Amino acid sequence: MPAWFSERLRREFSHLEVVHLPNYDRATEEIADADIAISWSLRGEQIKAAKKLRWIHSTAAAVHQLMTPELRASDIVVTNARDVHGPVVAEHAIALAFALAKRLPQAVMYQQQKHWAQHELWNVGPRPRELNGATITIVGLGGIGKPLARLAKSLGMRVVGVREHPERGSEIADAVCGFGELDEALRQGDFVVLAVPVTPKTRHLMNAVRLAQLKPDAYLINVGRGVLIDEDALAKALQARSFAGAALDVTTHEPLPPDSPLWLMENVFITPHIASLTERMWERHYAHYTENLRRYLAGAPLLWVVDKERGY
After folding, report:
1. Percent of the chain scored above 90 by pLDDT?
2. Which sequence positions are flagged as catalytic?
3. At what angle do helices 281-298 and 82-101 cross, to 10 degrees?
4. Helix or strand or coil: residue 191?
5. Is the pTM here over 0.90, yes or no?
6. CATH number of the structural domain spanning residue 69
């Protein structure tokens, strides 16, 4: 968090004491008498030490790293930044879909070799394709999935959504199914995008069996969290060319270890967890957070509250 964030809070909310820590060294000490915390991760012993804590705001959309047994058992309210990150992560997912469809990573590789590779890009591997008329399967119709569905529809794509409660439907998607029908949804997708929260149900959601459901010319895009995919199974499937390729903004271990086979695969496009990073990100954080802070101080219901049992 940039320094101006806390400085502006002190100016606009002068009756509050704002402590901005550069790291976790004094977190346990400072949180002991704090009413509010902004953090994407706190340990169980820190939650225990926080005798006055009533509200934690996560600057991330995913909050699984906060969900200790101590926090789940407490009456501390948790909010997240899903409306800050969702729309721009959706933009990144569409950018990755375009890059894969138009074979831009391979074009960059040939550019570095000073090779005019029109023949190779057309005849070697999956041919360039159009997004218009293609089917995108979006696993998770939340903060990322909804704006992604809107972008996809604006491009003329058919949208298949997968969500925990399919009975809620969608005003955007052409079809909505539950996780019990996930395999069929995967089989329909020309592009499959993972944008679902991390829960016990979704950890390694894309295992060897699920990866085998993808069409031979399908692309897998992950803008959720790395643990949604079994990376060993992913590497084997990609080496076998069982589907066209993958674009990963997130990996199980970050940074991705140098010895990971994913680095050197021609059918893998990696971006280093930058989907939500833009020059306007912290301004959006500030606007969203202060809206909730005013609500908290007025005793009004907070926005973007996380269900601690569900984990999102």
Report:
1. 100
2. 225, 254, 273
3. 150
4. strand
5. yes
6. 3.40.50.720
